[in-house]
Design goal:
This protein has 6 helices and 11 strands.
């Protein structure tokens, strides 16, 4: 499926259709506030395994990231102290991935690394999908191994490339080229380990 959604006002019927796909273990490509990404229901282990296989990711060795709707339920999935929470509150929603220690609520596939990336993108489409789904969405960027070329920003070209590998591609307009800024918070003090689109406010 190729579904057009407008960030200002995502169509509830189309959102429900996509959420139904996610609930059934489907894979979806969607816009964020940085680059287009591939995701699934983060609590559906088979769907997570399918994305890891598709992207050639070893879940035991790679950092997996999830998108949450807001900060209210982050403590269900990650351990956050007051200082880090304040930093996250200043910067989210926004183009950041905060690496945190996991809690026991995430499936075992996440626990081998003991950390999880948390994203709350400044994009209404993906946040509305998360809100209606009621679970976080596993997220990994759609990007080329060698360099970023046109299909990673143009949803129609993304659909041409991935229509046989995913269940839905969302057209939310052209995507960006810069990834999120990755902030490691596992040691107590935030440390930028990859500077991306976001400028961190402490």
């Amino acid at each position: 499926m190729f579904i057009k959604l407008y960030p200002e006002n995502p169509n509830p019927k189309e959102v429900d259709k996509i959420v139904n796909v996610l609930q059934n273990g489907g894979l979806v490509i969607y816009p964020t506030d940085t680059v287009y990404a591939i995701g699934c229901d983060a609590l559906n282990v088979r769907a997570v395994e399918a994305i890891c296989k598709m992207k050639g990711i070893n879940p035991n060795k790679s950092n997996l990231s999830i998108i949450c709707y807001d900060l209210s339920n982050i403590s269900e999935y990650a351990k956050v102290d007051n200082n880090i929470f304040k930093v996250m509150k200043k910067n989210l929603p926004g183009p950041f991935t905060f690496i945190l220690n996991t809690t026991s609520n995430l499936p075992k596939i996440y626990k081998n690394k003991k950390t999880v990336g948390i994203r709350i993108p400044d994009n209404n489409i993906i946040r509305e999908l998360v809100r209606v789904l009621g679970n976080p969405i596993l997220t990994t960027s759609v990007k080329d191994d060698d360099e970023i070329i046109e299909y990673t920003t143009d949803p129609e070209l993304i659909y041409e490339k991935y229509e046989n590998q995913v269940d839905v591609v969302i057209d939310g307009g052209y995507g960006g080229l810069d990834g999120s800024t990755i902030v490691d918070c596992t040691m107590g003090e935030p440390e930028i380990i990859r500077q991306g689109k976001g400028e961190l406010i402490l």
